[in-house]
Amino acid sequence: MAEALAFNRDTMAEGWSARDLAGAELVKMADEGLEFACVVTDESAKSKLGELLRKYPERVFDVGIAEPNAVGLGAGLALGGKTTFVSAFGTFLCLRATDQIHTDVAYNDVPVRLIATRAGLTSGGGPTHNAICDLAIMRAIPNMTVVVPADAMQAARLVRQAMSHPGPMYIRLPQGEGPLVYKGRKYEYRIGKAVTAREGNDAAVIACGACVAYAVAASDQIRPEGTAVRVVDMHTVKPLDVEAVMSAAMTGVVLSAEDHSVIGGLGDAVAGALAEAGLGTKFKKLGVPDLFASIGYPDALHAYYGYDSDGIVAAIKTLLRS
């Protein structure tokens, strides 16, 4: 059942990745007359953002493989009064352009939406292309809102809401297609407010991005054994929905799951909230260990490092036994 939810093609976004569905939403928003600008790198222009570039060349700027320039230009456009979306590979956006993000965007507190594509562990590029420390960096930058959609449809809803959200924002999107976590289900989505993807009071998994689908699959897998596991989709990593964390802690067992280093990301944010509240909840962080990850397909690496659905189930059982 875990594999059926996480990797069955019926739950995929009909051939769309989060990047492309977010890009398609931007095209739709432009067609509706919403005013915004977009800065893309060479790779991004080949995605659905390329359609935006062709239809609205006056509002889209392709700077090639030059992430610092992209962020600097985006900051300038935002200072001129335009809400601006800047899209680039996640690892190069957060590392090569950190100075521009920190000083040009965040210091000026301007409405630049940084869309980091191919985030987390990716295939092909190896360790240099794995964006596994971006959440740690972006969480530490003042004024920055950090959001990690759970699926492609949520990514589309996010970019539309981002139009009216104040200040800068970092939007983290995974590579390739992914399961639609909420397919056929209506739910309220609001930046800064977590979503309960599964109910349960025996344990709780607080996850973001691709790990929300894994957590839902794990909850469904373990439920027939008599264990009801709550799944909290913490799509907004900063500001953290502390109320949702406190509610999850009432189960007595909490795990965090993220396609990111276990240092500085969602897990540390949750751990900090639990510690500040003085709660003695059983807690474990799941994610990429403190190392440069091996080369392989993302789902294989997720399993190898123990934060796919089977890894989550195993961690829940271990905490419940302890």
Distance between the termini: 26 Å
Number of helices: 13
**What oligomeric state do these chains adopt?**
single chain
Strand portion: 15-25%
Q: Give the tally of structural domains.
A: 2
CATH topology of the largest domain: Rossmann fold
Give the helix/strand class: alpha/beta
How is this structure best summarized?
This protein is α/β, with parallel strands linked by helices and 322 residues long. The chain contains 13 helices and 14 strands.
General description of the model:
With 322 residues, the protein is of the alpha/beta class. The protein has two domains: 16-179, Rossmann fold, CATH 3.40.50.970; 195-321, Rossmann fold. The chain has helices at residues 2-7, 18-31, 49-55, 67-79, 90-96, 98-106, 134-139, 152-162, 211-222, 242-249, 266-276, 298-304, 309-321, and strands at residues 12-17, 37-40, 60-62, 84-89, 112-119, 145-147, 169-174, 177-179, 195-198, 203-207, 229-233, 236-238, 253-261, 282-288. The strands form three sheets. The chain has a seven-stranded mixed β-sheet with strand order 3-2-4-5-7-6-12, sandwiched between helices. A five-stranded mixed β-sheet has the order 9-11-10-13-14, sandwiched between helices. The protein has a two-stranded antiparallel sheet with strand order 1-8. Helix 2 (18-31) runs parallel beside helix 8 and helix 9 packs across helix 13 (309-321). The chain is globular.
